[in-house]
């Protein structure tokens, strides 16, 4: 019997050895997933939501609404790229795009209670985060993805399971696989050492 995405994520997390971390992460994207509340309703307890939608006309109102749903369901809620909004909605943490990773240490020092994640697209960027107090890294693109159209034409622009396994071994921070993740590709990540999976359309 084929496992669902939650079951695959649970097994990946168990294999990794990382404890007390979300097994799966949903990143909101109004264009790709226009009804994020429906996705969140189907997430298992203990999952995590990263609220992006940077250009949404009602970003503040939507963040409060999704935060409320997540709180009821026991799901961590992070705001991407906006510490002020994260504090305002009493989010569990903040997610930093790669161009903001130099702010990790400062945010950790001022807000030790926050769960802090960052997006990375290279091992070099990940190395810059060592010892800065980051809770997890979202590494992309693992597989071809519409979020990075160039990967649909050139597989060499993706990281792939083999390189991902090497990176997880070298980088001592929990890593979540992002980019082209769905029920079929997630199975290929067994044994890589990732803490779990992150996706937009995959849910």
Features of the shown structure:
203 residues; eight-stranded parallel beta barrel; 7 helices; alpha/beta; 31% helix
Can you describe this structure?
By secondary structure, the chain is an alpha/beta fold. Helix content is 31%, strand content 17%. An 8-stranded parallel beta barrel has the order 1-2-3-4-5-6-7-8. Strand 3, helix 4 (83-88) and strand 4 (93-96) form a beta-alpha-beta unit. The radius of gyration is 16 Å and the shape is globular.
Topology (elements, then pairings):
Elements: H1 5-16, E1 24-27, H2 36-41, E2 48-51, H3 59-73, E3 76-80, H4 83-88, E4 93-96, H5 104-110, E5 115-120, H6 123-127, E6 136-139, H7 160-170, E7 175-178, E8 196-199
Parallel strand pairs: 1-2, 1-8, 2-3, 3-4, 4-5, 5-6, 6-7, 7-8
Number of strands: 8
Helix/strand class: alpha/beta
Poorly predicted runs are none
- Give the biggest beta sheet: 8 strands, parallel, barrel
| Main sheet strand line-up | 1-2-3-4-5-6-7-8
Number of helices: 7
Radius of gyration: 16 Å
Q: Give the N-to-C terminal Cα separation.
A: 19 Å
Nearest-integer average pLDDT:
93
Query: What would you call the shape?
Result: globular
Oligomer state of the chains in this structure: single chain
The SSE order reads HEHEHEHEHEHEHEE
Helix content: 25-40%
Strand content: 15-25%
Write a short abstract of this structure:
With about 200 residues, the protein is an alpha/beta fold.
């Amino acid at each position: 019997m084929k496992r669902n995405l939650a079951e695959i994520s649970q097994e990946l997390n168990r294999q990794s050895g990382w404890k007390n971390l979300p097994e799966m992460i949903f990143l909101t994207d109004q264009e790709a997933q226009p009804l994020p509340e429906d996705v969140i309703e189907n997430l298992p307890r203990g999952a995590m939501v990263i609220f992006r939608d940077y250009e949404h006309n009602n970003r503040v109102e939507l963040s409060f609404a999704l935060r409320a749903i997540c709180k009821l369901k026991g799901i961590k809620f992070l705001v991407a790229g906006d510490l002020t909004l994260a504090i305002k909605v009493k989010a569990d943490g903040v997610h930093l795009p790669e161009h903001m990773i130099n702010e990790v240490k400062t945010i950790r020092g001022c807000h030790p209670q926050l769960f802090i994640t960052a997006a990375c697209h290279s091992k070099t960027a990940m190395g810059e985060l060592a010892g800065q107090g980051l809770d997890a890294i979202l590494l992309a693109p693992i597989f071809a993805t519409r979020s990075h159209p160039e990967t649909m034409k050139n597989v060499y622009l993706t990281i792939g399971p083999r390189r991902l396994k090497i990176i997880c071994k070298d980088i001592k921070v929990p890593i979540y696989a992002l980019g082209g993740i769905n029920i079929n590709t997630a199975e290929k990540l067994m044994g890589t050492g990732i803490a779990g999976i992150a996706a937009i359309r995959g849910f």
